[in-house]
Amino acid sequence: MAKFGWSSLWKLISWLSSYMSSLLDKNGVSIIFAAVAAVALLVSLRNRKRRNIETTTSSSRAVNATESSCLPHTGNKSSSGVPTGPFSTRTTSSWKLKNVFVGVSRITLGTDLEKSCLFRRVSNSVGEQVQLDPDNVQGFLQLISLFEVFLIIRVNSDEEEISCRKALEVTGTFQSGLHPAKVLFCETLQGTTAIVRQLEPHMHIDSNPSVIVDLERFIQRLVYIGSGGFSSKTNKPIVILEQLADIFQ
């Protein structure tokens, strides 16, 4: 029926008309009525099949679009650095995962060495050193394995910059997905804000509330890592966590 075209239908009607003309004297109006009914049935079946095909196609596209929009853009990173594939084999029932990470592929993470969500200062016989906080290192490693992450660190000297890079290297973050060129340094909070606005991430995470407030107008998703509240300028919903590791719990 799908291949049955209008030209074939017209030929059928013409043939039926000729045939009915020859039989009109013998069978009368009943033959004409039966022929018209047959043609009407064929047209009805053709239209019904076409509507079924269009409905099935539209439904399939709608389902695919809904599933695509609900899946987080996470997973293994492609050659372009953008994560692809399913989120994870672990459950995604947490509200944080479903609401914060949907549609996210690029993340900027800002921190410093004072109110840090990633680093901590350690004093030993050699002197003061910088290390990754063991309570947050696993969360950070998971973050960089799933997303394209730019780490923005506020430092006061070249020595602090060197110490931060060494701490990242020793912990194996560069082998876990963090590109060395995506570790950026600045000296001020305004510097962090400027870098984030230039990178235009889908989400920004920071341990300083002033940076979060300054970025409210420019970044859709914001996550503050720390304790205590702060005054929002736009009343935009902001996720507040005590530590970086909580984002995956």
UniProtKB/TrEMBL annotation:
Keywords: Membrane, Transmembrane, Transmembrane helix. InterPro entries: PEX22. The chain crosses the membrane at residues 28-45. It holds the Pfam family HAD_Pex22. Residues 55-85 are annotated as: Disordered. GO terms for biological process: peroxisome organization. PANTHER family: PEROXISOME BIOGENESIS PROTEIN 22. This is Peroxisome biogenesis protein 22. It comes from Galdieria partita.
